[in-house]
Design goal:
Blueprint (H helix, E strand, L loop, with lengths): L2 H6 L5 H9 L2 H6 L6 H14 L4 H4 E4 L7 H9 L4 E4 H16 L9 E9 L6 E10 L2 E8 L2 H10 L2 H12 L5 E7 L8
Parallel strand pairs: 1-2, 5-6
Antiparallel strand pairs: 3-4, 4-5
Length: about 190
């Protein structure tokens, strides 16, 4: 399933629910966040590390230097519906994906990548959905890019990654083990 197809499912996902937890009900009702370069890079990391066969359908690489130019505008118009990233950003993401695959932390053969789940929450009756990075024998593995492995624990707490994994476990209806897999954005792309 493509990310766009996943977004079209009429259900609540963690990306929306976290606004209720982290901010306020008003922020939750406001709707989706703007798509940013960082989010596009995160999606690209997941694609290259977990489902590289889907790369061509969802991404386009800009060979120019800057966004916001006439050259960028023409590139954007020629690639509707795709995540657009600069060549320098793709080099970073490729390094991260190689590091993740070489790390031995369960990506290669560790389970099914990018699995979409849907359920109705028993307590609230709300339709829910999730796109899990990897689900397999080792449980749920959630891939995250980060600036520093040393600072990752702080970020995981701040951004509610444990809540996200609990949401996924609820959707799967079990007590699967959960793992966060972090990869640094800068060379040498440490993985933990």
């Amino acid at each position: 399933m493509t990310f766009e197809d996943y977004l079209a499912i009429p259900a609540v996902n963690w990306s929306r629910l976290k606004h209720m937890w982290k901010h306020s009900p008003l922020r939750f009702r406001h709707g989706a966040d703007d798509d940013t370069t960082a989010r596009g890079m995160g999606r690209a990391l997941h694609t290259l590390a977990l489902t590289p066969n889907l790369w061509d359908a969802g991404y386009a690489v800009f060979e120019g230097d800057r966004r916001g130019t006439k050259l960028w505008d023409a590139f954007e118009a020629a690639n509707p519906g795709k995540t657009l990233l600069k060549a320098s950003e793709i080099r970073t993401i490729m390094g991260q994906a190689r590091a993740v695959r070489a790390s031995g932390h369960g990506i290669e053969g560790g389970g099914s990548p990018e699995q979409v789940i849907q359920w109705t929450d028993a307590a609230t009756g709300i339709a829910c959905k999730g796109m899990l990075d990897i689900v397999g024998d080792r449980g749920i593995i959630d891939l995250k890019g980060c600036g520093s492995i040393a600072e990752f624990e702080r970020r995981a707490i701040r951004d509610g990654y444990a809540h996200q994994l609990a949401f996924y476990r609820r959707g799967l209806g079990g007590d699967l083990p959960c793992h966060l897999l972090a990869v640094e954005t800068s060379v040498p792309h440490d993985v933990a």
